[in-house]
Automatic annotation (TrEMBL):
PANTHER family according to UniProt: IOJAP SUPERFAMILY ORTHOLOG (PTHR21043), MITOCHONDRIAL ASSEMBLY OF RIBOSOMAL LARGE SUBUNIT PROTEIN 1 (PTHR21043:SF0)
Localisation per UniProt entry: Cytoplasm
Regions annotated as coiled coil: none
GO MF: ribosomal large subunit binding
GO biological process: cytosolic ribosome assembly; negative regulation of ribosome biogenesis; negative regulation of translation
Oligomer status and interactors: Interacts with ribosomal protein uL14 (rplN).
Similarity comment: Belongs to the Iojap/RsfS family.
Record key words, sorted: Cytoplasm, Repressor, Translation regulation
Lineage, top ranks: Bacteria, Pseudomonadati, Pseudomonadota, Gammaproteobacteria, Vibrionales
GO cellular component, one term: cytoplasm
Biological role stated in the UniProt entry: Functions as a ribosomal silencing factor. Interacts with ribosomal protein uL14 (rplN), blocking formation of intersubunit bridge B8. Prevents association of the 30S and 50S ribosomal subunits and the formation of functional ribosomes, thus repressing translation.
Protein name, per record: Ribosomal silencing factor RsfS
HAMAP family in alphabetical order: Iojap_RsfS
Length: 105
């Protein structure tokens, strides 16, 4: 998958699970670990975890295995590392606290 296809896929699968405030940020040249960050919000710990697990499961079905998934135990901020894109699924409190949009935007 090309970057645009992967980003569209991740956004679509997060949207399937009713993720809120989905935003894609281009961090090429700003980050050495990824090219794009996709940030979205879940309404509870369970919702955040469910979004991340759904996205990871759907990615595996199309042959795009995530490199890592982290944060599912806490469910406040879960990261799905897809290599060129990283999906951040956060509860609203975490999103407001860390303000990734301002940091990387």
């Amino acid at each position: 998958m090309q970057n645009e296809q992967l980003n569209a896929f991740l956004v679509d699968k997060a949207d399937d699970m009713k993720a809120e405030g989905i935003l894609t940020i281009d961090v090429q040249g700003k980050s050495s670990i990824t090219d794009f960050m996709i940030i979205c919000t879940g309404t509870s710990k369970r919702h955040v975890t469910s979004i991340a697990e759904h996205v990871a499961r759907e990615a595996k079905l199309v042959g795009k295995e995530p490199f890592a998934i982290d944060g599912t135990e806490e469910g406040e901020w879960v990261i799905v590392d897809m290599g060129d894109s990283i999906l951040h699924v956060m509860q609203q409190e975490q999103r407001e606290l860390y303000q990734l949009e301002k940091l990387w935007g």
